[in-house]
Specification:
The chain is of the alpha/beta class. Helices cover 41% and strands 20% of the residues. The strands form two sheets. A five-stranded parallel beta sheet has the order 2-5-1-6-7, sandwiched between helices. Strand 3 (89-96) and strand 4 form a beta hairpin. Helix 5 (146-159) packs across helix 6.
């Protein structure tokens, strides 16, 4: 395989997307591989899972733990990564956070780029699989001051009207409390912690920017 992937994770709101846009890196958006909110077996905030009949999309906004990797389809994401590495192209879902569902599909091309970035909060879940497949160029976790991340996440989510305000506030506080443990977990799974400047330099070196 001539094309390899950089896996980039980090807390929601840490600036992963804006960094990649600034340096012009080819990007696979891993957050588009969330499962639909009305699928059975979705992880719930109380630690249980949704029943055989699933939950309604309105209920899902309040009940599903979207920060649990079980809410995300790792197999589909990995298949897309391998497609891009082997052929330079793949079909990817377009996910609506407001609808908790895939609403469309599109084609992503990385052409003959030697390296592209697969970015999302669950990227660390694929480190071992990408390494075993021989396609891993690097694995990074972007870190910034916790208060900054909390503020930028809240500002983005409010601007995009991702969820009701009370849901965003409650989730934001929970994510801020959990952030050090999350970063430690991603590091344990093989991601290298970097600040914004280090992250930009590492990716730019790989893509030749």
């Amino acid at each position: 395989m001539s094309t390899r992937v950089i896996l980039l994770t980090g807390p929601s709101g840490s600036g992963k997307t804006s960094l990649l846009r600034r340096i012009g890196a080819r990007r696979l958006k891993l957050d588009d591989f969330y499962r639909d909110g009305d699928e059975p077996g979705m992880p719930l905030l109380d630690g249980s899972v949704s029943g055989a009949d699933g939950v309604t999309r309105t209920e899902a906004q309040h009940a599903i733990d979207w920060d649990d990797p079980a809410s995300w389809d790792a197999d589909r994401a990995m298949a897309a990564i391998l497609d891009l590495c082997s052929t330079g192209s793949t079909t990817v879902p377009v996910y609506s956070i407001q609808d908790n569902a895939t609403v469309d599909y599109t084609t992503l091309d990385v052409d003959a780029a030697p390296v592209y970035v697969a970015e999302g909060v669950f990227a660390a879940e694929l480190v071992d699989r990408c390494r075993e497949a021989g396609v891993l160029a690097d694995a990074l976790v972007l870190c910034r001051p916790r208060l900054q991340t909390w503020w930028f996440r809240l500002r983005r989510d409010l601007a995009e009207r991702r969820k009701p305000v009370h849901v965003l506030l409650r989730r934001g506080l929970r994510l801020a409390r959990e952030e050090p443990a999350k970063i430690a977990g991603w590091t344990a799974k093989g991601c290298r912690p970097v600040d914004r400047a280090e992250c930009e330099a590492a990716i730019a070196a790989h893509i030749g920017a």
